[in-house]
From TrEMBL:
HTH lysR-type domain span: 1-58
SUPFAM superfamilies noted in UniProt: Periplasmic binding protein-like II, Winged helix' DNA-binding domain
This protein's UniProt keywords: DNA-binding, Transcription, Transcription regulation
InterPro entries: HTH-type_LysR_regulators (IPR050950), LysR_HTH_N (IPR000847), LysR_subst-bd (IPR005119), WH-like_DNA-bd_sf (IPR036388), WH_DNA-bd_sf (IPR036390)
Native source species: Paenibacillus vini
Descriptive protein name: HTH-type transcriptional regulator YwbI
Family assignment from sequence similarity: Belongs to the LysR transcriptional regulatory family.
Cited CDD domains: PBP2_CidR
Gene designation per UniProt: ywbI
Amino acid sequence: MDIRQMQYLIEVARLKSFTKAASALFVTQPTISKTIKGMEEELGVVLFDRVGKRVELTDAGQLIVTQAQQIVTSFQNLTAELDDLRNLKRGHIRIGLPPMVGSSFFPRVIGQFHQRYPEITIQLFEDGAKKVESDVADGLLEVGVAVLPTVQEGLCSFPFVEEKLNLVVHPSHPLADREQVELAELAGDGFVLFRQDFTLHDRIIAECAKAGFQPHVIYESSQWDLISEMVGVGLGITLLPETICREIGKERVRILSLVNPVIPWKLGIIWREDRYLSFATREWIRFAQEVLTSPGDNEYSL
């Protein structure tokens, strides 16, 4: 028994007539009669008492119509909800954001998206880029922000910012009056870094190793403002992206260009290549790409 057969059955029961049901459903009366007869043979019961042109439900027919009405209603509700999803009226998206990225780039994007699609809910998970990348790859998140290039296989992405890391030191630091500093000159300093679940943690340590030293890490945090405050009270030095450096109060620290090497910081939106993406998630990716990479938007231009 399928939905179409149930709809025929319900309409005959409502109108108490095969002819009227056929007219209401825009099918022929023989089609209705054949369908009901086939249902009776399949179920092994008589559904209608036929008295002339008028039909009445049997006890078995009444039982089946009651269940059929519930099934048809559920199917119609399902269809309506799917239409809502296709038309982006509803949906839910789980997005992973590194803490240092969220406040700088995404409040406006999320706000504009919510204005356009108020029934789509967004759940944000704040973790380091390394953890976000892993969670997207494992299917725990639909989409996320990570440092490019990614390590996990099977991920798609588009970049939306490409900068470099700057050196942040206390004003009393011996190098504070310089404009540029080479990484090797920092071998004797204490470093304040992001935690190990942040991609920058591994990248900075790897670049220090290439420069010939193992950095002495004295403190780790997940918050860029706390890291800058640590530097501001003279507890160590740090390397932060240009975007973050623009947010730091310049009265307590000095921000210098790091050269030899220049350490790039490239961010991108990532998602699984082989995973089904909901209508809402696909629209979020498209919308975010449009806003974040728009050359006419000074706040987000690269």
